[in-house]
Amino acid sequence: MRSFVPTAAWLVLAFGLTTAFAPNVHEADDGTLYYIAANQPAAPVPPAPAPAVASPVVTPMPANNVVNGGSNGDLTIAITNSYGQPLSLAFDVDAGSSAFRGSPGPTSLPASSVTSYAVPSGWAGRVNVGKINHSDNSKIEGSFYGAGNGDIDISYVDGYSVPITCSVGGTVVTGCNMELFEQECHAPDTPSKSPDGNLAVCSNGARANVDGPPSSFFAPCAGAAYTFPNDNNANTGMVTDTLMSCCVGTSCEASPHQKAQKRGMQSPKANAPSLLPRSRQLHARLHGRSGVHGHKHHA
Q1: Closest by alpha carbon to 295, among 142, 96, 100, 79?
Q2: Contact in structure between 118 and 74 (CB atoms under 8 Å)
Q3: Peptide bond into 268 cis (omega under 30)
Q4: How many CA atoms lie within 13 A of 98 on its CB side?
Q5: CA 176 to chain centroid
């Protein structure tokens, strides 16, 4: 008698018949058949594991050139843009003096916004403010060696771009909020235009006249902002606090020193050299002249 050897096809057929007529027969993953009693419930299928949730990534705070307050003992210079258009800010420091905190580079200040920069003791320098980045822009400048030992002033000695005033404790101590471009910038002064063709800077042609007088263009702000190197009546921005608030625009509060300056008046007489308080002497010396307000390129 010939022995029966099941073929693969027979096994498939047999398994199909078995599972068809015996629904309680099941096949394991390895091919083994097993039987589950009719009254025995099938083992519950375990739920699929929840997908792993990635841990949140903590992003470090970005480094920023704008410093609000700085460390204890620093002077904070706040700048409010009330001029109605973006302003260019550029920074300059006298040789051998302390730098701005964060060593900021040229930047833009949007309209209707405020920024601030901190300077440590030993700082002497300036912030150039204007509609374009120009070396003859209006300047916030000064020196600082601790509260009560330094000063801030507004300078149009190099040129005028925008009106600026600065205050301490809510009182304006330096600057001029007049829009000098309401009059013509002509010789000895030199106008410069922005790429859009609008007048942006009036370079001061009287900058070499140490004791003045200023040209007719700059005369309305004489004694409130520096209009020539020894315009020392403009130097009243003594540092009596750790915050100096500066405002750009004609809507900023006016300096009391500009009230007597009316358009159409003749240029004021040149100021005679005078003895300056110790803080003013310090400020002048750091800017290149002994007893005279000056800029580093005027020394």
Answers
A1: 142
A2: yes
A3: no
A4: 16
A5: 23
Residue 182 phi/psi, 5° resolution?
-75, -10
Residues 6+ apart with CB under 8 A from 10: none
Alpha helix segments (H runs only) across the chain: 8-21, 278-286
Other C-beta atoms within 10 Å of 123: how many? 23
For residue 60, whether the previous peptide bond is cis, meaning omega lies within 30 degrees of 0, is no
Q: Of 87, 77, 161, 82, which Cα lies nearest the Cα of 126?
A: 77
> Which pTM was predicted?
0.67
Written as six digits, the tokens of 257 are: 């020193």
For each of the chain's 299 residues, which pLDDT tens digit applies?
555 555 554 444 444 544 444 455 556 566 655 555 555 555 555 565 554 443 333 323 233 334 444 567 899 999 999 999 999 999 999 999 999 999 999 999 999 999 999 999 999 999 999 999 999 999 999 999 887 788 899 999 999 999 999 998 888 999 999 999 999 999 999 999 999 888 999 999 989 999 999 999 999 999 999 999 999 888 876 777 788 999 999 999 999 888 544 444 333 333 333 333 334 444 444 444 333 344 333 33
Give the DSSP letter of residue 187.
T
Pick from 112, 55, 101: which is nearest to 76 by CA? 101
**DSSP state, 84?**
S
Single-letter amino acid code for the residue at 118: A
Residue type, position 215, single letter? S
Question: Which token pair is 31?
Answer: 């091919």
Start-to-end CA distance of the chain, whole Å, equals: 127
Cα-only R_g, the chain: 39
